[in-house]
Specification:
heterodimer; A: 174 residues; 9 helices; 66% helix; B: mainly alpha; two-stranded antiparallel ribbon; 2 strands
């Protein structure tokens, strides 16, 4: 651990966070963030199935944001993807994080969603650092830490031969 | 342990970090010093009339944060496109489950 103390960022995408308390908390952080998205997605699935029409409508009203015309264009042209995609991907991202499987890939999806929510909700009455941004930061944290390696399935998957032969898979596992 | 960060990694971390801090902290301080409203949302009176507008458009601050995220995303794509430099496949990242 003396090496880690000298260099907390052991290698570019790795942290040897093998102390029990740290590992425990990273796992808790990952699972609770996953539940947050799973609950959000699965309740939409229960209510609207794969026809979540509020999704495209939400994007269409996102005018005058830092994302320019992109959200409105998406709302107008990608409704076929957004309506089923929002509940489905929220659910899958949540499941992936809770299981700790494909954690980094799922976290990228979470960052994408939370960026749109942060910009779209624009609830800045108490500052730009609001709950949407904190959610975004949670996904980035889970991604950076490779949180699936702590009591998650990615820890098992990364030991498999095909991952050892294709180490770049660690960029979407972890 | 070997430090495998290269110049691209350092630029990505430095640039994205600078953009994050500029968008959130530095411009937040500027807005604070400029007086009400202290948050990037217009201040209204009881009648709903706008009595003070933020000095810095929130689009600018959110745009800086989005730019920071884009830098990280591009960095990720760069890492995928270039040879893996993460060391051996038998590191101790799975220790917590052992």
């Amino acid at each position: 651990m003396s090496t880690q103390a000298a260099n907390p960022l052991a290698t570019e995408f790795e942290l040897e966070l093998d102390k029990p308390l740290t590992a425990y908390w990273i796992a808790i952080l990952r699972v609770l963030t996953g539940w947050w998205f799973f609950h959000s997605g699965v309740t939409k699935l229960i209510e609207d199935g794969l026809a979540y029409s509020y999704g495209p409508a939400y994007m269409q009203q996102m005018t005058g944001t830092a994302l320019g015309p992109i959200p409105v264009w998406m709302g107008n042209n990608l409704a076929w993807l957004i309506a089923p995609g929002v509940p489905l991907f929220e659910t899958l991202i949540g499941l992936a994080l809770m299981a700790g499987l494909l954690t980094r890939l799922a976290s990228v999806g979470g960052v994408f969603f939370m960026t749109l929510f942060w910009i779209g909700n624009a609830e800045f009455g108490h500052g730009v650092v609001n709950s949407d941004l904190m959610g975004l930061l949670l996904f980035v944290t889970v991604l950076v830490l490779g949180a699936g390696r702590y009591y998650g399935l990615d820890a098992i998957v990364e030991k498999m031969q095909f991952v050892k032969q294709n180490p770049k898979l660690r960029y979407i596992l972890g | 342990m070997t430090d495998t960060t290269d110049i691209v990694d350092r630029i990505a971390m430095g640039l994205s970090g600078a953009l994050f801090l500029l968008g959130i902290v530095v411009l937040g301080l500027v807005e604070l010093v400029a007086g009400k409203p202290y948050s990037p949302a217009p201040l209204t009176n009881d009648a709903g009339e706008v009595i003070a507008t933020p000095l810095i458009d929130p689009t600018i601050r959110t745009g800086l944060v989005i730019a920071a995220i884009l830098v990280l995303a591009l960095w990720g794509l760069y890492k995928v496109a270039t040879p893996y430099a993460g060391g051996t496949a038998t590191r101790r990242e799975t220790a917590a489950t052992e």
